[in-house]
Write a sequence for this structure.
């Protein structure tokens, strides 16, 4: 995918929300070093990255996030005009981040919108693989193969290790205007065909 030119910088979409947690959650519902999905106030550990999720990199955003950490208060984002150009850091309290819609299985999506250093480093590590993609409109299926501890001048972080497994056609759930009602209808079609075939094989004189 030769035109995938992302500026990593110097030195929001719609939920549900997907996030990486190095330490786990205080309520114990998410173990350390795992992804989770937050839908409203509910947080559920998400193991889908171990088998694979599809990232909509064609419509992703990058920018700077300022989060106060207050419960119920959304973080402030200043988005870049293009992922190929990282804007100047707005202030000391801002961190680099991104927003990517993901197909997480079962016709469902979640928005991976995060400014944690572990998530940022994990994504930027696979940029060479994204740049080498086919460039035909297909999207990358990403899998987590493990994690690593990274040491910094001030503290450390645990980063998920990701890999591009393969490139796939855009899933229906990542197409514009898609609704879960369409997915339910699609799933019901094979059942209707089987039922119709069964009825066609029943003689007219059979009584139930």
């Amino acid at each position: 995918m030769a035109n995938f030119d992302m500026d990593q910088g110097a030195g929001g979409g719609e939920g549900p929300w997907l996030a990486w947690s190095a330490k786990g959650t205080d309520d114990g519902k998410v173990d350390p070093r795992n992804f989770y999905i937050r839908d409203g106030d509910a947080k559920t550990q998400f193991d889908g990255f171990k088998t694979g999720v599809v990232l909509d990199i064609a419509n992703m955003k990058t920018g700077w996030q300022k989060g106060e950490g207050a419960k119920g208060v959304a973080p402030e984002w200043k988005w870049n005009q293009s992922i190929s150009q990282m804007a100047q850091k707005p202030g000391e309290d801002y961190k680099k981040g991104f927003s990517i819609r993901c197909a997480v299985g079962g016709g469902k999506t979640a928005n991976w919108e995060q400014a944690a250093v572990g998530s940022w480093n994990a994504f930027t590590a696979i940029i060479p693989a994204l740049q080498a993609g086919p460039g035909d409109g297909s999207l990358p299926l990403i899998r987590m193969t493990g994690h690593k501890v990274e040491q910094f001048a001030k503290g450390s972080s645990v980063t998920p290790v990701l890999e591009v497994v393969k490139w796939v056609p855009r899933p229906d759930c990542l197409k514009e205007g898609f609704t879960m009602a369409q997915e339910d209808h699609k799933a019901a079609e094979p059942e209707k065909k089987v039922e119709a075939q069964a009825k066609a094989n029943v003689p007219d004189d059979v009584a139930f």
The chain has a mean pLDDT of 84. The first helix runs from residue 117 to 125.
